Amino acid sequence: MRTTVIQMAPGASAPENIEQARALVTAAISADKPDLVMLPEMWSCLGGTRAMKFAAAETLPAPDSAGEAGPLYQFLSGIAREHGVIIHGGSIGERHGDRLFNTSLLFDAKGRERARYRKIHLFDVTTPGGEGYRESDTYEPGSDIVTAPLSAGLTAGLAICYDIRFPALFHALRARGANVLLVPAAFTVETGLAHWETLLRARAIETQCWMVACGTTGTHTDENGQKRRTYGHSMIIDPWGTIVAQVSDGPGWSTARLERRVTDSIRERMPVMAHHRLSIHTP
């Protein structure tokens, strides 16, 4: 399965971000002919005030497509259908009363929704450099562990950004049949330089899964008027922990082929899941 990660530099305007995403996705499909295309976390509205986040968010239709779809949902479904590719929609804001969910949507090549995942672990931290983040001020955590078939022999496990620091979630995804991990993100430059590649490779190695990680890049402005920078460096990693594709700085994309036989070979030669002797806590 040819897989492309789309690295964006989004701001707080959803219409402008849709056009940026459309241009990058269309160019990547024309150039690389992927089967699966993935967008980053909160590509639809990164930064801005709480009111701006709510304005950009949508009430999603039921998974059976009952209900009216907003422009973000329509864009993701439509571009999948138009190009005949699977689209992982990174994540967008989903309205939930006076709160939001940070939600990933997966569409098949006919534009039908196949999976919906709400970010479980929220980013409430102060970095060593003193930058503070309180995702829980606006967002509600999800609770469901989500996997979905991609094609014959490949099953995706869904996670978002800060989830990558919680190995139990990824062990649970592996236990439910995942051999591909799809992780959109908006890692800060500080945490990205220190931990991004290390965490991604660790999760790929310990679960023996392909890791497809798609990040935002560039500078945006938060609700207090402060400039925030995200790290980019979107990458695809094989189940042995080798980086097989990577985007550097700035908007762009990179593509690699995911192969089931690679996963099967590694798992047969090193059956780590059969060797577990300690119980693993899962959400």
From TrEMBL:
Record protein name field: Carbon-nitrogen hydrolase
Ranges where the CN hydrolase domain occurs: 1-260
Entry GO MF terms: hydrolase activity, acting on carbon-nitrogen (but not peptide) bonds, in linear amides
Listed InterPro entries: C-N_Hydrolase, C-N_Hydrolase_sf, Nit1/2_C-N_Hydrolase, UPF0012_CS
TM annotation in the entry: none
Organism of provenance: Komagataeibacter swingsii
Keyword Hydrolase (UniProt): yes
Keywords: Hydrolase
Pfam family, one: CN_hydrolase
Family in the record: Belongs to the carbon-nitrogen hydrolase superfamily. NIT1/NIT2 family.
Keyword field contains Hydrolase: yes
